[in-house]
Amino acid sequence: MATKIAILGSGAMATACSILLADHADQDVAIWARNPDHAGQMAHDRENKRLLPGVKIPDKVQITSDIGEALRDAEFLVAAVPTQFLRPR
């Protein structure tokens, strides 16, 4: 059974991590994007055109704006959210 890894964030670092992690056949990867439009664009194009243009996201990477869906059955969590969005200013 594959290990599920959820990645919180949908920026360049999250995208790069998802690509590297998805390269392993025994790992399922999900990216959570807080913006549904951005998640939809990434899922449709299989690319993060805004922050990592030209780099294809493997089809096996799940991209969603539903955090519950991204975290469902995840054994590991990668936080790839810029710190400016994690703490009050």
Structure notes:
With 89 residues, this protein is of the alpha/beta class. The protein has a single domain, classed as NAD(P)-binding Rossmann-like Domain (Rossmann fold). The chain has three helices and six strands, in the order βαβαβββαβ. The strands form two sheets. A four-stranded parallel beta sheet has the order 5-2-1-6. The termini are far apart.
Number of helices: 3
- The total of beta strands comes to 6
CA gyration radius, whole angstroms: 12 Å
Q: Which architecture per CATH?
A: 3-Layer(aba) Sandwich
Q: In what range is the share of β-strand residues?
A: 25-35%
The sequence of SSEs as H and E is: EHEHEEEHE
Major β-sheet annotation: 4 strands, parallel
Tertiary shape:
globular
Q: Identify low-pLDDT runs.
A: none
Q: Give average pLDDT, whole number.
A: 94
Termini separation comes to 42 Å
- The CATH top-level class label: Alpha Beta
**What is the CATH topology descriptor?**
Rossmann fold
Strands ordered across the widest β-sheet? 5-2-1-6
- The helicity comes to 25-40%
Question: Helix- and strand-based class?
Answer: alpha/beta
Total individual domains: 1
Fourth CATH level, the homologous superfamily: NAD(P)-binding Rossmann-like Domain
